[in-house]
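Model it.
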Amino acid sequence: MIPTFDHFLRPILALAAKGPITRRSIQPLLAEQFKLTEAEVLQRFPSGSSTILANRSGWAMTFLTKAGLIEKVSPKTYSASPAGLEILKSHPSEITEADLKQLPGWEEAWEACGRPEWDGLHRLRLAGRLPRGRADLLRLQPRRS
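Modeled.
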């Protein structure tokens, strides 16, 4: 089963601490780490717009960027920020959405993008609990930071 985006937060941050990452480069690494099957890696939303793995890992990267834990070092390329390295030390096993919301600047970062942080449907989608066949109602893709 493909993990929800929040399960990707710490693994992606750990990868960014080892060296520069891109949204594409992390997908095979996450697939290996979470022991995803080829079918899971290729699984798309019913709308066909993107793979579930790409969408969820993209959201995790968006959250890490908004939290200031990863930062852009060149086009489409990110590395762990000093704050990200500290969070890795203080959170050795897991980083949650609640942890990110406690960081200074979290609310301001989401307000700066000009839309509400979440609504109920997006929460359901990211948690993998949107009713089957209804994911096509949500075409929201993570904003590129």
